[in-house]
Design brief:
Elements lengths: L1 E2 L6 E2 L11 H27 L3 H26 L48
Antiparallel strand pairs: 1-2
Helix pairs in contact: 1-2
Bound molecules: zinc ion.
The site of zinc ion has 8 residues, from helix 1.
């Protein structure tokens, strides 16, 4: 089962690319990244050709702003994820205790935990 690194949608019908992104996220992110990179490159060209300090400073601000927006994708790309399956019978009508040990992980490195329940067999009780 694949899970998209960006939208966190997962399941047997979700396919992810080599970056761990589903089709929807991959298309949207590619458009945004290309647009921001283009603005950064244009700003760099303007800085290199301009003799006005205000223009240079303004374009530097533009580059910083777009670079900060791109940072979220870098953070997502660096995020480590792990899927595990805890197969067990679930007792009906009661709390079901599951022990899950996250190791080795530091509290500062831990982002979130997502839990899905997928059933491939349901038994009727007598
Ligand atoms: Zn996605």
């Amino acid at each position: 089962m694949a899970t998209c690194k960006w939208c966190r949608k997962g399941g047997i019908f979700i396919r992810v690319d080599r970056y761990g992104l589903c089709n929807n996220c991959s298309d949207a992110i590619l458009i945004e990244v290309n647009s921001r990179v283009k603005v950064i490159q244009e700003s760099k060209d303007i800085i290199n050709s301009s003799k006005k300090l205000d223009t240079v400073l303004s374009r530097l601000d533009t580059i910083v702003m777009h670079a900060q927006e791109l940072r979220k994708y870098e953070d997502a790309a660096n995020m480590q994820s792990k899927e595990t399956s805890l197969t067990q019978d679930i007792a009906p009508g009661t709390w079901n205790k599951v022990d899950l040990i996250l190791a080795p992980v530091k509290a500062s490195e831990f982002n979130y935990l997502s839990i899905n329940i997928e059933e491939d067999e349901i038994q009727l009780l007598n």
